[in-house]
Specification:
The protein is mainly alpha-helical and 215 residues long. 82% of the residues lie in helices and 0% in strands. α1 packs across α8 and α2 runs antiparallel to α7. The model has no long low-confidence stretch (mean pLDDT 90).
Length: 215
Amino acid sequence: MFSLNAFVKSFHALALGVPSTLIVSLLGIAIGLLVGALICAGALSLSPVLRRVAAVWISFFRGVPLMVQLLLMFYLLPVVGINVPPMVAAVLAVGLCSSAYVAEIWRGAINALPRGQAEAAVAIGMLPRSIWTRIILPQAVRLSLPALVNELILLVKASSLVSLVGIWEITRASQAEAGASYRPLEAYVAAGCLYLVINLCLAALGRYLERRTAA
């Protein structure tokens, strides 16, 4: 039978894993945004080489499961002489995986903009840099915001995989609590509730940012 006391105890124990979950997710999306912008630029480039590199990058990171990417990052870096803590390897794996999805989100948003806007800007003598910073990027960010918030929510859920490399986040904490208390149901329900609370907060933040950018 479900025990409320065991659930509350598990909830408090699992809360210790929340910081790691947030660190992996937020730093992962930050890396995804930065690298994704570069990959998007390559995908939209006039250079066939850059377009091919971007296509290969996107195909690899979208085609290989994140769990496999995480394990590759964790075991490959020491082989090439780069010794980093498990948290760094996890953030890099999550961020690089996210970059492929972010690149496609931004590419779709930019392609959705009317081409006439850029052509009109060129006609009145605006420089390419000004066209991008004042016309294209603000609209692309506004169009892509819902998808980017959704990507962050997906990263929060995907961050459960970093428990494979020993990081003490919500999922690993729930496994430990289930083993220690012999109450797996309460431990995993508590984990689900924590993920739900985090993602509901992120969704609310996304709606707020949408209203602000639409104003």
